[in-house]
Every structure is written in structure tokens, then in C-alpha cells.
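Researcher: Here's the sequence for the chain we discussed earlier.
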Amino acid sequence: MQRERNGEAKRLRRLEVDHQLEMKVAMIPRLAFLLAALVLGSCSSMQRELSDDERCKSFEYRAGTREYADCRQRIDRQRARAAEAK
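Model: Thanks. This is the structure I predict for it:
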């Protein structure tokens, strides 16, 4: 009878471990999707920063100057207004 209980306890522990492993494996695609979304989102943000930088430099404003900072702020305000209008 003691052996039966030990055997049942081992079987239950194995089932628990199997279930935990299944849950971890099921999370892999979700984590991969989240990682891809973060990477793509940061690429978009970086592209926008480069675009804003090029736009201000096209007016011959140099990074680090007051004029350049004002240019970037104007672009940010325009973007914010456009987002509010949607």
C-alpha cells in the first residue's frame, strides 16, 4: 500500500512537471511575437528620429544649437497636433 502511494505521488509530480513544461513551451510564440513588435517599434521610432534630424539639418540648423532644438520641438508639436486630430 505504501508503494502504491509513492507510485501515485511520483506520477502526480511527473504530471505537474509535464504541465509546467507545456505552459513554458506555449509561451515561446507569444514571447517571440512580443520581441518582434518591440524591435519593429523601435526601428520605426529610430527612423522618425533620423527623418526629423535630416529635416532640421536641411534648414542648415546644426545639432546642439538653439535653432536646431526649436526645429525639433516644432516637429514634435506638429506631430502631436496631427495625432490629436485623428
